[in-house]
TrEMBL record:
GO terms for molecular function: ribonuclease MRP activity; ribonuclease P activity. Pfam families: Ribonuc_P_40 (PF08584). The keyword Manganese does not apply. One of its GO terms (cellular component) is ribonuclease MRP complex. One of its GO terms (biological process) is endonucleolytic cleavage in ITS1 to separate SSU-rRNA from 5.8S rRNA and LSU-rRNA from tricistronic rRNA transcript (SSU-rRNA, 5.8S rRNA, LSU-rRNA). InterPro entries: RNase_P_Rpp40 (IPR013893). Keywords: Hydrolase. This is Ribonuclease P protein subunit p40. Coiled coil: none annotated. It comes from the Eukaryota. Its EC number is 3.1.26.5.
Length: 366
């Protein structure tokens, strides 16, 4: 039998912060905007009628939005017309789809206009563009960054011509891309991308929504912004600690996402004590490509909902794509075992919130 000591436990990081939405620095907005590639959003709402919830999220709902799924060569993003139309106006994002960050090649374009290529060693050497070794696979993976929005990235300049030649003539990298564009007025206008790339026969993909009542959870943990502690020894008897709350929300997300049977192992996860009885526990989950602007709109809707109803708290969790080349602040992301990169806002009636941020061992910290 193998010696158990030979297997090390994967390192993960969970940070917990406490802030107010009244903070002049708007930390919540910065945290959301610095994590542009979002695959799913779930909101957990205790003791609010389903009709009120649906009405609250009718306007900012991501289900009204589409993304484009188009297979095209990377050099298409270096065309002058594309750069002037999308990169230098509004916010454009693109992410390679059905690619593996730990075993293949991946690509992304950030809202800042930076093209990122995460390449295996063979592809990197064939392509010929200058990059840097991956922080997690220094000998086998390389990261190439090209700022498409730079004033010097124009025809006739050495860098532009070099990038075009490498991507178009030397090695034509092609991926399926999920794409979204928010114009300068702040409106999602992904249909414009679909029309621009009509020669590539792409398709519009609508975000999916799933609303559920949690039938086996008629309780929720008692938590307080001020009185719930990060450590058990400082916790008052009337409130759960912050980490137990996160465990409850994580278990609930797994249960509802997988539709696990009531008698399964995961569904036996107990609500931490002390707890409160609930009349209703509702979850809204959107899946697809969710923009940062949509998430900010949902945060505003949650704040209005919690102020107009007798609700102790509402939790909003955002999951990033597991195979995205970056997470926050353009920091490199690696998959390793699960590729997790997500964050949760627990929002209270006094306009204060907790912010959980979770990353895996193959992530560069914030």
């Amino acid at each position: 039998m193998a010696d158990g000591k030979a297997f090390s436990t994967p390192k993960r990081r969970l940070t917990i912060e406490k802030y107010s939405f009244q903070d002049e620095k708007e930390r919540y907005r910065r945290h959301i905007e610095e994590h542009p590639f979002n695959h799913a959003v779930e909101i957990v709402i205790p003791d609010v009628l389903l009709g009120n919830v649906n009405e609250c999220f009718q306007s900012p709902s991501p289900t009204q939005h589409h993304c484009c799924l188009i297979q095209l060569p990377v050099h298409a993003f270096t065309e002058v017309e594309f750069i002037n139309t999308f990169i230098k106006n509004g916010q454009f994002i693109a992410l390679s789809w059905e690619t593996r960050i730990d075993s293949g090649n991946c690509a992304a374009i950030l809202p800042t206009g930076v093209l990122i290529l995460s390449l295996d060693k063979d592809t990197y050497e064939q392509l010929g563009l200058t990059g840097k070794p991956s922080a997690f696979q220094k000998k086998h993976r390389f990261i190439v960054e090209v700022n498409l929005a730079a004033p010097s990235f124009v025809p006739g300049k050495k860098l532009y011509e070099r990038v075009r030649w490498c991507l178009k003539d030397k090695l034509e990298l092609t991926f399926k891309f999920l794409m979204s564009w928010t114009n300068e007025a702040g409106n999602l206008s992904t249909g414009t991308i679909h029309s621009f790339f009509n020669s590539y026969n792409g398709q519009m993909v609508r975000n999916e929504v799933n609303t559920q009542r949690a039938p086996n959870y008629k309780k929720a943990p008692n938590i307080s912004y001020d009185r719930s502690s990060l450590t058990e020894d400082k916790m008052g008897p009337e409130n759960c600690d912050v980490c137990d709350c996160m465990s409850f929300l994580s278990g609930l997300a797994v249960l509802l996402a997988e539709l696990i049977a009531p008698d399964s192992y995961v569904s036996t996860l107990a609500c931490p004590e002390p707890s409160r009885d609930l009349k209703e526990l509702i979850t809204h989950r959107w899946t697809g490509m969710i923009t940062s602007n949509s998430i900010i709109s949902m945060i505003h809707s949650v704040r209005n909902l919690i102020k107009s109803n007798d609700v102790p708290w509402i939790a909003l969790t955002v999951w990033g794509f597991t195979d995205c080349p970056v997470t926050w602040k353009q920091n490199e992301h690696g998959h390793f075992l699960s590729g997790e990169n997500f964050y949760t806002f627990v929002i209270f009636p006094n306009d204060q919130y907790w912010l959980y941020t979770a990353m895996g061992s193959h992530d560069i910290g914030l």
